[in-house]
Amino acid sequence: MATGTQVVGACVVSWATWKLMGWILKKDPLANIRGPPSSSRLLGNIGDMISTRGWAYHKHLADEYGGLSRVNGFLGGSALYVYDPKALQHIIVKEQYIYDEPPSFILGNEVVFGKGLLATLGDHHKKQRKALNPVFSTTHMREMVPIFYGVVNKLEAAFQKEVQNGPITFDVLSWMTRTALELVGQSGLGYSFDPLTEDGKEHPFSISLKQLIPAAQKVNVFRFVVLPRVCKLGPAWLRRAAVNLLSTFWTDLRRVRDIIDVMWNTSVEIYESKKAALKEGDQALESHVGRGKDIISILLKANMAASEVDRLPDEELIGQISTLTFAGMDTTSNALARILYQLTQHPDVQEKLRQEITEAQTKHGRLDYNELMGLPYLDAVCRETLRMFPPVPMLSRMARKDMVLPMSRAIVGVDGKEMREVVVPKGTRFFISALASNRNPELWGPDSYEWKPERWLSPLPAALVNAKVPGVYSHLMTFLGGGRACIGFKFSELEMKLVLAVLIPKFRFALEENKEIFWQMGTIVTPIIDEKDGSLQPQLPLTVSAV
């Protein structure tokens, strides 16, 4: 006779088998949407899409299947790859609180950064943005210009020292990254991370930020499978003890833990310093880097004066520090590196840009905010680079309930019939392609895959304007749109233009002979050189000379 344990065991196995068979035999509601065949039983097409050399694959998806296609996800599940402008408008703006970030994204960001902008949803996210919006306004950006010049002039001095004995090749990406961090540090946090000298010692916070993405990618199983299931189990001290235990034998997890600890401890140190200075009064703030005009100091002041309903707790304010620093460092530094690289590929554009900036500086002296923003060719070079080469080429969303997704252009289903809308079941994962949207030839014209700054000096195509792409910046999806658009896009724009306005008149940039740069696709696009030893260290060696 079977024991009770055996009966229970048999029931569990039967239930699991029944659920598994139901999942296998269940009809895929997205099956009629065309898409590529699966490349892997485990990963589907995900491996191709996130490959560091996935550029051709993404172009294939756009060219072959149009603005909406079905891709295979983990273990045979279906997801949607989308860049149709009407579908994007629906996802990013109209129904943005239904199509939200997947839970794994939100939970992962909370663990890494704390409860900042990247780790909140819905009304919670809106409350944080309401508190932060004033410090990212155009008015505040104007006030940031002197701080920006103070940092970028140090970069200029470092470059002058590098080229004093003639043309020299060095890693420009490293300098762009250090500068981006120092700009965020001084104007965002009122804190200096880097003296921007050749022999300057790198701050542990800077090292941690650079190592975060490569390290996190090595523990994807923990991030996407384990974390969503255990992140709320038990008190915080117990979860920390579990991570410490796992870290004793899981080296990659230990590295991520240590990186997060450095980031959090530095954020707390900066926050407590600002809070103490505020209590002492304006005179104490004057002695700090940024003299109290930095983003965090202003945010803290406003938060103290806010109503109980609008006030953010300390934990969330601390969470903004590493969130804003991470978001502002890698993306902008890699965008700047890409602009400099493009200028080496197009010396005529580099010379034309140099002439425009030099003439403006001869007329006005040091350019203020309005003068920087009023340079048409500088603006065109920046916009075109952000169009062709978005630093973050793909983002994800998940439908929180069953929806009907409209499209601006009909697609032909597997059954041969046209569809102008598709039924999207709750839980459907979306891959939003900023890359494909920004290069869509139906909107940008037949030369959409060419880097042509001049396109911004004439009226943009009517098809593009009428499409109403929901990007917050220049019909582009580079900074996204809607309630989760990049809050710091004006900060990023100012940084790029001011760095170029200082460097381009003084230095000439060229690509070193026999060095092939490859732009590696990833969460953030980075330049690398395929070294003989197999290392793939992000770098952009350019030959720099004085003008």
TrEMBL record:
<dbReference type="Pfam" id="PF00067">
    <property type="entry name" value="p450"/>
</dbReference>
<dbReference type="InterPro" id="IPR050121">
    <property type="entry name" value="Cytochrome_P450_monoxygenase"/>
</dbReference>
<comment type="pathway">
    <text>Secondary metabolite biosynthesis; terpenoid biosynthesis.</text>
</comment>
<keyword id="KW-0479">Metal-binding</keyword>
<keyword id="KW-1133">Transmembrane helix</keyword>
<comment type="similarity">
    <text>Belongs to the cytochrome P450 family.</text>
</comment>
<dbReference type="GO" id="GO:0004497">
    <property type="term" value="F:monooxygenase activity"/>
</dbReference>
<keyword id="KW-0472">Membrane</keyword>
<keyword id="KW-0349">Heme</keyword>
<protein>
    <submittedName>
        <fullName>Cytochrome p450</fullName>
    </submittedName>
</protein>
<dbReference type="GO" id="GO:0020037">
    <property type="term" value="F:heme binding"/>
</dbReference>
<feature type="binding site" description="axial binding residue">
    <location>
        <position position="486"/>
    </location>
    <ligand>
        <name>heme</name>
    </ligand>
</feature>
<dbReference type="GO" id="GO:0016020">
    <property type="term" value="C:membrane"/>
</dbReference>
<keyword id="KW-0408">Iron</keyword>
<dbReference type="InterPro" id="IPR036396">
    <property type="entry name" value="Cyt_P450_sf"/>
</dbReference>
<dbReference type="InterPro" id="IPR001128">
    <property type="entry name" value="Cyt_P450"/>
</dbReference>
<dbReference type="GO" id="GO:0005506">
    <property type="term" value="F:iron ion binding"/>
</dbReference>
<dbReference type="GO" id="GO:0016705">
    <property type="term" value="F:oxidoreductase activity, acting on paired donors, with incorporation or reduction of molecular oxygen"/>
</dbReference>
<keyword id="KW-0812">Transmembrane</keyword>
<keyword id="KW-0503">Monooxygenase</keyword>
<keyword id="KW-0560">Oxidoreductase</keyword>
<dbReference type="InterPro" id="IPR002401">
    <property type="entry name" value="Cyt_P450_E_grp-I"/>
</dbReference>
